[in-house]
Amino acid sequence: MSAPFDLRGRKILVTGGKGFLGRHLLAALARSGIDERDVLAPSHGERDLLRLDDCRAACEGREVVFHLAARVGGIAFNLREPGRILYENAVMNAQIMEAARLAGAKRFVAVGSVCAYPKEPPVPTREENLYDGKPEESNLAYGTAKRMLHAQVEAYRAQYGFGAIYLLPANLYGPGDDFDPEDSHVIPGMIRRFAGAAARGEGRVSVWGDGLSTREFLYAPDCAEGIVRAAGRYDDGAPLNLAGGGEIAIRDLAALIAHLTGFTGEIAWDDSRPSGQRRRRYDASRSVAILGNYAATSLEEGLKTTLRWYREHVESRGGAAS
Questions:
Q1: Which pLDDT score is estimated for 321?
Q2: Is 142 an active-site residue?
Q3: pTM for the whole thing?
Q4: Would 47 disulfide with which of 42, 62, 67, 213, CB 3.0-4.6 Å?
Q5: Could you read off the pLDDT of 136-158 as tens digits, one per residue?
Q6: Among 117, 142, 156, 219, which one carries the catalytic annotation?
Q7: Domains (ranges, CATH) in the chain?
């Protein structure tokens, strides 16, 4: 369902604007003609979304809220701190949407996660499959909190007529990603390990799982473009997938990243470690029909750009991104 809504001239809040996806969203807003003076993107130090007063202060005078802020990490982080993940995400989500409603915001764009989908949904996964089962165990806390965010969108639309929408991006990657050796997601984690091994002349890299699971990835700048388009064209409580249209086995992804980084040694699969959900691929037909083709970047092209960014901003600085 589309409903034209012009973002230009609106006072906009972006939570998580200093984060990975947030920076790409700010760039996409600028490309769409939004004056940067109309956009507020406070850091965590400036506005702590675990505090209701900070949420209300951030939303004051804002007509549009893009809610991207989240406590998130890779499988290792999910398994290590599930209580913190559930609590912090549930509290942030609930408070920022309530604050936006009280402030009179006209549009609230809630960015969810495909981790909210059940462990074994039909493939490709459609939006109506969201509540067909429990999220996969390795991201149960995060997925549950993101599912609760959609429930809040529907509840606020039903009771208050609040203009909230809920988007479900596929697994994201791209320049500016988190390359932390402990808590990064699969693509930045592999880039760091393979690039480092190639530079040191090592002959073996160990990777978690058996490599047989599949994932669908969406280039972060393309996702940001989809989010901006959705804010202007979509007005419905039903979830909306944002996806790139492809599925790749983790073994094939590892081989591709190894090739791009120049690593020629052995890839050793540690099947004592979790592989996560077995298959992930998402039906993006609704979002493409409404928003047009926002996922314009091929996986190989996106990986090359991400690798260049890593080498310029992380590897060249001894492992710490600037």
A1: 52
A2: yes
A3: 0.93
A4: 42
A5: 888 899 999 999 999 999 999 99
A6: 142
A7: 12-175+216-247+279-297 (3.40.50.720)
